Amino acid sequence: MTLYADGQDFEHDSALVHLLIRLLEYDLYVCVVTAAGYGDDAGRYEGRLSGLLKGFEGKGLGKRVEKFYVLGK
Which pTM value belongs to this model? Predict the structure, then answer.
């Protein structure tokens, strides 16, 4: 599934963000796999996923957010 088109981020209040949060609330591991090849440059991934990360804020996920992973090319 493509999360965003033409290099754009997806909205923090999108249905997909809410679904990913629900998975984390069920204490499941969640991984986003991207074709973006930023290597170990976490800041670039953070920028691309800012909408998702913003959606995580204030949701009271606590330690559950540690079960969220991003894998890149």
Answer: 0.78
Q: How far apart are CA 30 and CA 20, in angstroms?
A: 7
- The structure tokens 């963000």 sit at 17
CA 21 from centre of chain: 9
**Do the Cβ atoms of 45 and 72 come closer than 8 Å?**
yes
What is the domain extent for residue 55? 15-71
**Three-state DSSP state, 34:** coil
**Residue position matching structure tokens 């995580």:** 56
pLDDT of 46 reads 86
Q: 68 exposed, middle or buried (CB, 10 Å; 0-12, 13-18, 19+)?
A: buried
Residue type, 22: R
Domain presence at residue 7: no
In a domain, 9, yes or no: no
The torsion defined by the Cα of 8, 12, 16 and 21, in degrees rounded to 10, comes to 140
Q: Quick one: tokens of 57?
A: 């804020």
